[in-house]
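Sequence design from tokenized structure. All designs in this work follow the same two-part layout: the structure record, then the generated sequence. An example of the structure record is given first.
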């Protein structure tokens, strides 16, 4: 069963790029406005896009992707992650916290 989750609209190179988070078989990914899967359902968890990034969880670690889904902006090496806001994101590992 497929579920469409939250929506967030991003501006990218003067064009509107909407990404809709979906869940399929317990994995998360994103579709575009036309319903095309642009980021495959491959993540254990995923946040909505904010400031051009969405947090994702792979295994037990968190990182960030951009709206194209082809680039992992920040690798999955953190124990926690939060959405970006005004260019700043928060992540933490077992030994330290970081503002990204």
């Amino acid at each position: 069963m497929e579920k469409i989750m939250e929506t967030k609209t991003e501006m990218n190179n003067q064009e509107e790029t909407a990404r809709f988070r979906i869940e399929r078989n317990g994995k998360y990914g994103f579709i575009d406005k036309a319903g095309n899967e642009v980021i495959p359902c491959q993540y254990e968890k995923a946040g909505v896009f904010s400031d051009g990034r969405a947090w994702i969880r792979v295994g037990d670690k968190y990182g960030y992707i951009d709206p194209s889904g082809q680039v992992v902006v920040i690798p999955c090496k953190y124990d926690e992650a939060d959405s970006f806001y005004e260019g700043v994101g928060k992540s933490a590992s077992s030994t330290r916290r970081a503002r990204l």
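The mean pLDDT is 74. We note this feature because it recurs in several other targets discussed in the main text.
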